[in-house]
Each structure stands twice: as C-alpha cells, then as structure tokens.
NAD(P)-binding protein (Bimuria novae-zelandiae CBS 107.79), 318 residues
Amino acid sequence: MASRKPGVQDAIAHSTPFSVTGKSAIITGAGSGINYSFAALLLSRGCNVLIADLSLRPEAQKLLEDNKSSPKAVFAKTDVTSWPQLERMFAVATEHFGTIDIVCPGAGIYDPHWTNFWHPPGSTTSKDSPDSSRYATLDINLTHPIRVTQLAISHFLASDVSPSNPKRVILISSIAGQTTNLNTPLYVAAKHGINGFVRSLSSLDARLGIRVNAVAPGVIKTPLWTEHPEKLRFVDEAVDVWATAEEVAEAMVRCLEEEGLEGGTVLEVGRAQTRRVEAFMDPGPSGSGHTVGRLEEGYDEVFGWLEGEGWGRGKAKL
C-alpha cells in the first residue's frame, strides 16, 4: 500500500506476537463511551486497567467494583490538561500493576460551545481566556494524546522495551481526520493532527517494539453525541446509522494484537466495517455509520455567529 515503508512488514514479522492477556493498561477517558468499552473488553481478556478520568459513570463504577483482583481495575482521578496529573497516572499504574504495556490517551471532547472556534476567547459562551494562549479543546484532543504518548515511550524505554518485549500505544482519531466540517474546525484540526502524529511514529514498531496506532471511528452512539443536543441536530435518525462503542473497542484490540496492523496504522471503524486509512490517495470514509445527514444544516448557524459577539460586528473584538 502507498502509506507503508519498504522493509517494515518484514521487520514486524520477526517481532514477538502481542496479546493483551496478562498485560496492564492505562486508558484516559475510560469513565464513559468508547474508552469505557475498551477498558471493559481488556478486563474481559485478562488485562489490568487503570481508568484515568475526571469522573465515572455508573457503568464504569461497576466495572471497578467487579474487577478488584485479577484482572484489576483502578481509578485515578485525572485532568488530562494537567501534565503533572498525567505523570501521576503512570506512577499510580506502576504502583498497582508493576509494569505498563498498553497506553491509550483516549479522552476527548467534540468542540462544545465553551471551547469552540466560533465562540472566541473572551466571548460570553467561551471558557477559553484571551490571556491563556490556549484552547481547551486542543489541550484535550491533541496536546494530551501527544504528551501521554511521550510519557509512554519514556516509560517503555525504562522498562527494556524491544521487539521481543513489545509495548503498545493506541490513540483515538476520527473520520474527521480525513474530512472537513465548518461546524467543528478545531476538532477536525486535532484529528488530522492525530493521524499525522501516529504515522510519523511508525518506525518505532520495527526498531523498538513500540507500536503506535489509531482508530478512526465514524458516528458512534456515545455520550459525546447523545448528551449534546447541539450535535444531535446533525443526525437524521431516519437515514443515518450509528456504529457502537463496542465495535470501536474490538478494532482497538486488533490494533494492539494483529500482526498486519503495524505501527502507524489508522484503522477506520463504521457500522459492521473496518478498513485501513491510507496516508496517500485514500478514498475517504463511506458506508454505514460514517455520515450524518444534516451536517451542513449547521453551517447557517455558524454564519449567524459571525454576525455576533467576538467577530468584529458584535460588542467584543477579537
């Protein structure tokens, strides 16, 4: 395929097979949604899991209560925008599990109005301060996965990682990493960034045994959609089809274990379908679970916002 480097597949073929059974993982954002489903699947396969999140939904709380020994689930309250707290979760995982084999910086948000390109810092809706020099949505969706991957690689190197003692990092991209969306440009920018970041680390797999891959989910029925009415407006329930968090979790485990999904792979997940996203000449997402029928209906709202606060025609200036 166009995105794969010569010799990489041969090198991977000589590496030690990887199984999640008996391993230990850190997952951010596992208090709900896709990351919760991933944590549940790993635990069912005999893998210890540290859940790093701000809070737990009832199903995640039950997961902790049901997995107190082997495999073991542990909760570490974590703000993923705080680098010291990200470092702390590695210390907590090491304390409980001894070693860490799998890291998933999965926490993410979908451009809520409080950190959104169309609601500039300093406007009434935004919580991003004009003095902070940062957008929370990029801190969560892009900077946090990059920093956690950096910390994971450092931890792996200190624990004698090699092709015979492989380790894994799995990130969550999106079909937004291949497409455009006027409604959520910062989210789209972050997911394009994740794809490029993952592909840039592809050579770590063959040389060091550190595989960094990503899944790119389509329209997944999780609280990221269902608890945000402003996003649900994009969905045409009569036509659009949801994929499930469980389908994404299965694809994530494939990215960890499957020999042919070498480092740098981005695996797209729709309804009852997965495919590798190529770096060059990729046809783009299509089929069940990949589209929302009313996406462009939100564009008029965006142009309405440009008449308001923060954009030169309203009260506040950028």
Summary: The two ends are 45 Å apart (CA to CA). Residues 171 and 214 are 4 Å apart (CA to CA). The chain has a mean pLDDT of 89.
